[in-house]
Amino acid sequence: MRSEQLEEIVKLSANPMPERPDGIVCVAKWSSATRKQCTATEAEYERLARQHPDTVFLRCYEEYDGAAVSIAKARVSIFPTFDVFYGGNRVARIEGPEYGLVEQQILRHGMINSKLDLFSEEADNKKRLAWGDGMINPDYNATPRTTARFIPAYDWDKDEGFFDSMANKAAQDFESQYENWVPPVDEK
After folding, report:
1. What is the pTM for the complete model shown?
2. At 151, is the pLDDT very low, low, confident or very high (cuts 50, 70, 90)?
3. How far is CA 3 from the centre of its chain?
4. Buried-most residue among 14, 36, 81, 88 (CB within 10 A)?
5. Which residues are paired to 92 by β-bridges?
6. What is the dihedral of CA 154, 157, 159, 163, to 10 degrees?
7. Which of 28, 68, 25 is nearest to 45 (CA)?
8. CA distance 52 to 55
9. Secondary structure element (H or E) that encloses residue 26, with its range
10. Where residue 70 falls among pLDDT bands split at 50, 70, 90?
11. Phi then psi dihedrals of residue 35, to 5 deg
12. 3 state DSSP class of 30
């Protein structure tokens, strides 16, 4: 992630929102896809993201193109490093895999939030337009009141669309065909 992109996301997260007039918490993780201390704790970052759907979670891997400039500009020397932003300002920096401290900062600055849920899997269900009597109709063959039924490749009766299922099938076919493939080694 370029530093300009991070600044823009932090600025957007500071904008007033329903139930959050002062914006939401944003966490940027400066990480690596190859360093053991970063990859070993990646699941913990995912857990935090799922437990705090009212927070924006970002990653910047040192292996990405242009990441060295952003990392130098942010003065990151230890991986992983977490920058916590609130109200458009960095309110905390946590160096090392200290996820408990990251969560403390999220809770400290997100405490005003009552039940704002922007990013969880359940948020989509809560935001759907009601059909008929105010409840989502479990009969997926019923005609909805929106035009979403006519979006190409969108299947109401599945959790994913046509293109998602085709991509999954292609990945499985590829993996099954090349699962144990090893390139030939030219020994001299």
Report:
1. 0.59
2. very low
3. 18
4. 81
5. 84
6. -30
7. 28
8. 6
9. strand 26-31
10. confident
11. -75, 135
12. strand
The mean pLDDT value for 102-122 works out to 71
d(CA 26, CA 53): 11
- Phi/psi class of residue 87: alpha, beta or left (left: φ > 0; alpha: ψ in -120 to 50)? left
CB contact at 8 A, 19 and 113: yes
Name the token pair of 16: 């007033």
Tokens of 102: 């990251």
Residue 84: pLDDT band with limits 50, 70, 90? very high
Q: Is 86 exposed, middle or buried (0-12, 13-18, 19+ CB in 10 A)?
A: buried
Distance CA 29, CA 3 (A): 13
Domains in the chain, CATH or no CATH each: 3-109 (3.40.30.10), 128-180 (no CATH)
| Segment 33-48, tens digit of pLDDT | 888 988 888 889 999 9
- The answer to whether 45 and 103 have CB atoms below 8 angstroms apart is no
pLDDT at 129: 45
| DSSP tag of 173 | H
Separation of alpha carbons 184 and 148, rounded Å: 50
